[in-house]
Specification:
The protein is of the alpha+beta class. The longest helix has 16 residues. The protein has 6 helices and 10 strands, in the order αβααβαβββαββαβββ. The strands form 2 sheets. Strands 1, 2, 3, 4, 5, 6 and 7 form a 7-stranded mixed β-sheet that branches. Strands 8-9-10 form a 3-stranded antiparallel β-sheet. 27% of the residues lie in helices and 19% in strands.
Amino acid sequence: IGASDEQHRDENVKPLFPFPACVARPVGKTEISRGPKAQAALQKEWGRLIARGVWNTRPGAVKEWRDVATAARNDGSGAHMGMLFEICVEKGSELAPEFRKYKGRVVFQGNAVENQDWEAAMFQDLGSSPATMEAGKACDIFGSMLGHNVQQADAEQAYIQALMRSPHETWITLPRSQWPAHWEVMDKPVVRLLKALYGHPDSGTYWEDHCDSHCQAIGFEPVENWPSCYYMKRLDLFLTIYV
Protein backbone atom coordinates (compact mmCIF):
# COMPACT_ATOMS: atom_id res chain seq x y z
CA ILE A 1 0.00 0.00 0.00
CA GLY A 2 1.54 3.28 -1.05
CA ALA A 3 0.26 6.85 -1.00
CA SER A 4 -3.26 7.83 -1.93
CA ASP A 5 -4.04 9.65 -5.18
CA GLU A 6 -4.43 12.89 -3.22
CA GLN A 7 -0.96 12.45 -1.68
CA HIS A 8 0.59 11.76 -5.09
CA ARG A 9 -0.86 15.02 -6.36
CA ASP A 10 0.59 16.94 -3.42
CA GLU A 11 4.36 17.27 -4.01
CA ASN A 12 4.87 18.30 -0.39
CA VAL A 13 3.62 14.97 0.97
CA LYS A 14 6.01 12.02 0.81
CA PRO A 15 4.58 8.59 -0.17
CA LEU A 16 3.96 6.20 2.70
CA PHE A 17 5.70 2.82 2.52
CA PRO A 18 4.83 0.57 5.47
CA PHE A 19 7.53 -1.99 4.63
CA PRO A 20 11.21 -1.00 4.10
CA ALA A 21 12.66 -2.30 0.84
CA CYS A 22 15.94 -3.27 2.56
CA VAL A 23 18.03 -1.95 -0.30
CA ALA A 24 21.77 -2.70 -0.02
CA ARG A 25 23.36 0.08 -2.05
CA PRO A 26 26.84 -0.67 -3.47
CA VAL A 27 29.47 1.73 -2.17
CA GLY A 28 32.28 2.62 -4.59
CA LYS A 29 35.98 3.07 -3.87
CA THR A 30 35.81 6.86 -3.93
CA GLU A 31 33.01 6.95 -1.39
CA ILE A 32 34.82 4.41 0.80
CA SER A 33 37.97 6.55 0.78
CA ARG A 34 35.95 9.51 2.04
CA GLY A 35 33.70 7.66 4.48
CA PRO A 36 35.00 6.65 7.94
CA LYS A 37 31.98 4.41 8.57
CA ALA A 38 32.52 2.45 5.34
CA GLN A 39 36.22 2.08 6.13
CA ALA A 40 35.42 0.87 9.64
CA ALA A 41 32.98 -1.73 8.26
CA LEU A 42 35.65 -3.13 5.94
CA GLN A 43 38.33 -3.18 8.64
CA LYS A 44 35.90 -5.04 10.92
CA GLU A 45 35.55 -7.73 8.25
CA TRP A 46 39.33 -7.99 7.78
CA GLY A 47 39.73 -8.33 11.54
CA ARG A 48 37.13 -11.09 11.77
CA LEU A 49 38.75 -13.11 8.98
CA ILE A 50 42.21 -12.78 10.52
CA ALA A 51 40.85 -13.76 13.95
CA ARG A 52 39.27 -16.88 12.42
CA GLY A 53 42.56 -17.90 10.79
CA VAL A 54 41.21 -17.84 7.22
CA TRP A 55 44.76 -17.54 5.89
CA ASN A 56 48.13 -18.33 7.38
CA THR A 57 49.31 -15.37 9.43
CA ARG A 58 52.12 -17.09 11.31
CA PRO A 59 55.60 -15.50 11.18
CA GLY A 60 57.41 -16.56 8.02
CA ALA A 61 54.19 -17.71 6.30
CA VAL A 62 54.34 -15.07 3.60
CA LYS A 63 56.21 -16.01 0.41
CA GLU A 64 56.74 -14.59 -3.05
CA TRP A 65 54.46 -16.12 -5.67
CA ARG A 66 57.32 -16.96 -8.04
CA ASP A 67 58.93 -19.09 -5.30
CA VAL A 68 55.65 -20.91 -4.58
CA ALA A 69 55.10 -21.53 -8.30
CA THR A 70 58.64 -22.82 -8.82
CA ALA A 71 58.35 -25.24 -5.90
CA ALA A 72 54.96 -26.49 -7.14
CA ARG A 73 56.39 -27.18 -10.61
CA ASN A 74 59.49 -28.90 -9.27
CA ASP A 75 57.69 -31.32 -6.96
CA GLY A 76 54.60 -31.75 -9.15
CA SER A 77 52.19 -30.79 -6.37
CA GLY A 78 50.66 -27.84 -8.20
CA ALA A 79 49.43 -24.60 -6.68
CA HIS A 80 46.65 -22.08 -7.20
CA MET A 81 46.90 -18.33 -6.74
CA GLY A 82 44.01 -15.91 -6.42
CA MET A 83 43.34 -12.48 -5.02
CA LEU A 84 41.01 -11.01 -2.45
CA PHE A 85 38.91 -7.92 -3.01
CA GLU A 86 36.59 -5.80 -0.89
CA ILE A 87 32.85 -5.25 -1.21
CA CYS A 88 30.97 -2.60 0.74
CA VAL A 89 27.24 -1.86 0.78
CA GLU A 90 25.00 0.49 2.69
CA LYS A 91 22.17 -1.59 4.13
CA GLY A 92 18.79 0.10 4.46
CA SER A 93 19.93 2.87 2.13
CA GLU A 94 16.33 4.00 1.54
CA LEU A 95 15.87 4.79 5.24
CA ALA A 96 16.78 7.86 7.25
CA PRO A 97 20.56 8.19 7.87
CA GLU A 98 20.33 7.06 11.50
CA PHE A 99 18.91 3.69 10.40
CA ARG A 100 21.47 2.92 7.71
CA LYS A 101 24.41 0.60 8.24
CA TYR A 102 27.57 -0.13 6.27
CA LYS A 103 28.48 -3.76 5.70
CA GLY A 104 31.92 -4.88 4.51
CA ARG A 105 32.82 -8.19 2.90
CA VAL A 106 36.15 -9.61 1.72
CA VAL A 107 35.79 -12.10 -1.13
CA PHE A 108 38.02 -14.50 -3.06
CA GLN A 109 37.97 -13.63 -6.77
CA GLY A 110 37.02 -17.05 -8.09
CA ASN A 111 36.99 -16.12 -11.79
CA ALA A 112 40.66 -15.17 -11.94
CA VAL A 113 42.63 -18.04 -10.41
CA GLU A 114 46.00 -19.06 -11.88
CA ASN A 115 48.04 -22.21 -11.44
CA GLN A 116 51.81 -22.54 -11.04
CA ASP A 117 52.27 -22.03 -14.81
CA TRP A 118 50.23 -18.79 -14.84
CA GLU A 119 47.42 -20.58 -16.67
CA ALA A 120 43.74 -20.56 -15.69
CA ALA A 121 43.24 -22.97 -12.81
CA MET A 122 40.83 -25.88 -13.27
CA PHE A 123 38.51 -27.05 -10.49
CA GLN A 124 36.68 -30.28 -9.77
CA ASP A 125 33.05 -30.24 -10.86
CA LEU A 126 31.69 -30.76 -7.37
CA GLY A 127 28.95 -28.23 -6.79
CA SER A 128 26.89 -27.66 -3.67
CA SER A 129 23.18 -28.46 -3.28
CA PRO A 130 21.43 -25.91 -1.05
CA ALA A 131 17.84 -26.45 0.01
CA THR A 132 15.22 -25.52 -2.60
CA MET A 133 12.29 -23.14 -2.24
CA GLU A 134 10.00 -26.17 -2.03
CA ALA A 135 12.03 -27.47 0.92
CA GLY A 136 11.56 -24.17 2.73
CA LYS A 137 7.80 -24.31 2.17
CA ALA A 138 7.72 -27.91 3.40
CA CYS A 139 9.50 -26.76 6.56
CA ASP A 140 6.84 -24.07 7.08
CA ILE A 141 4.06 -26.64 6.70
CA PHE A 142 5.76 -29.08 9.07
CA GLY A 143 6.19 -26.35 11.66
CA SER A 144 2.56 -25.27 11.33
CA MET A 145 1.24 -28.67 12.42
CA LEU A 146 -0.30 -29.04 15.88
CA GLY A 147 2.38 -29.06 18.57
CA HIS A 148 5.13 -27.89 16.19
CA ASN A 149 6.78 -24.54 15.56
CA VAL A 150 9.30 -22.99 13.17
CA GLN A 151 12.64 -21.52 14.17
CA GLN A 152 15.36 -19.89 12.11
CA ALA A 153 19.04 -19.34 12.84
CA ASP A 154 21.98 -17.84 10.98
CA ALA A 155 25.33 -19.61 10.68
CA GLU A 156 27.78 -16.77 11.24
CA GLN A 157 30.35 -16.59 8.42
CA ALA A 158 29.30 -20.09 7.40
CA TYR A 159 31.82 -20.89 4.66
CA ILE A 160 34.90 -20.14 6.73
CA GLN A 161 33.84 -22.75 9.28
CA ALA A 162 35.16 -25.30 6.76
CA LEU A 163 38.77 -26.04 5.86
CA MET A 164 40.11 -25.91 2.31
CA ARG A 165 40.42 -29.46 0.93
CA SER A 166 41.72 -28.77 -2.56
CA PRO A 167 44.41 -31.20 -3.83
CA HIS A 168 46.43 -28.08 -4.66
CA GLU A 169 47.49 -25.47 -2.13
CA THR A 170 45.69 -22.16 -2.65
CA TRP A 171 47.68 -18.98 -2.16
CA ILE A 172 46.21 -15.49 -2.03
CA THR A 173 47.42 -11.96 -2.49
CA LEU A 174 45.84 -9.26 -0.35
CA PRO A 175 44.96 -5.70 -1.39
CA ARG A 176 47.96 -3.43 -0.91
CA SER A 177 46.09 -1.51 1.79
CA GLN A 178 46.31 -4.65 3.95
CA TRP A 179 50.02 -5.29 3.49
CA PRO A 180 52.23 -5.15 6.60
CA ALA A 181 55.22 -2.86 6.17
CA HIS A 182 57.71 -5.70 5.61
CA TRP A 183 55.75 -6.91 2.54
CA GLU A 184 56.63 -3.75 0.62
CA VAL A 185 60.08 -5.06 -0.29
CA MET A 186 58.68 -8.34 -1.65
CA ASP A 187 57.64 -9.25 -5.20
CA LYS A 188 53.97 -10.33 -5.24
CA PRO A 189 53.73 -11.56 -1.61
CA VAL A 190 51.19 -14.35 -1.01
CA VAL A 191 49.90 -16.32 1.98
CA ARG A 192 48.18 -19.69 2.01
CA LEU A 193 44.37 -19.80 2.18
CA LEU A 194 43.35 -22.24 4.92
CA LYS A 195 39.56 -21.93 5.07
CA ALA A 196 36.81 -21.93 2.46
CA LEU A 197 36.44 -18.21 1.91
CA TYR A 198 33.38 -16.97 0.04
CA GLY A 199 34.02 -16.66 -3.70
CA HIS A 200 36.24 -19.71 -4.10
CA PRO A 201 34.63 -22.08 -6.66
CA ASP A 202 34.63 -25.00 -4.21
CA SER A 203 33.79 -23.18 -0.96
CA GLY A 204 30.11 -24.14 -1.07
CA THR A 205 30.93 -27.82 -1.42
CA TYR A 206 33.54 -27.80 1.34
CA TRP A 207 31.14 -26.10 3.76
CA GLU A 208 28.26 -28.38 2.79
CA ASP A 209 30.36 -31.47 3.56
CA HIS A 210 31.48 -29.91 6.84
CA CYS A 211 27.88 -29.11 7.81
CA ASP A 212 26.59 -32.55 6.79
CA SER A 213 29.10 -34.34 9.01
CA HIS A 214 28.07 -32.25 12.03
CA CYS A 215 24.35 -32.70 11.40
CA GLN A 216 24.63 -36.47 11.12
CA ALA A 217 26.89 -36.63 14.19
CA ILE A 218 24.07 -35.33 16.43
CA GLY A 219 21.33 -37.54 14.99
CA PHE A 220 19.97 -35.84 11.88
CA GLU A 221 19.46 -38.17 8.90
CA PRO A 222 19.54 -36.85 5.30
CA VAL A 223 16.20 -36.90 3.50
CA GLU A 224 16.58 -39.14 0.47
CA ASN A 225 16.76 -37.28 -2.87
CA TRP A 226 16.29 -33.91 -1.14
CA PRO A 227 19.69 -32.21 -0.66
CA SER A 228 20.34 -30.14 2.46
CA CYS A 229 17.21 -31.48 4.20
CA TYR A 230 17.38 -33.61 7.35
CA TYR A 231 15.05 -35.33 9.80
CA MET A 232 15.70 -36.30 13.42
CA LYS A 233 13.28 -39.03 14.49
CA ARG A 234 14.10 -38.86 18.21
CA LEU A 235 12.90 -35.23 18.51
CA ASP A 236 10.64 -35.14 15.42
CA LEU A 237 12.63 -32.31 13.83
CA PHE A 238 12.76 -31.34 10.16
CA LEU A 239 15.77 -29.23 9.18
CA THR A 240 16.54 -27.35 5.98
CA ILE A 241 19.88 -25.64 5.37
CA TYR A 242 20.58 -22.88 2.88
CA VAL A 243 23.66 -20.74 2.39
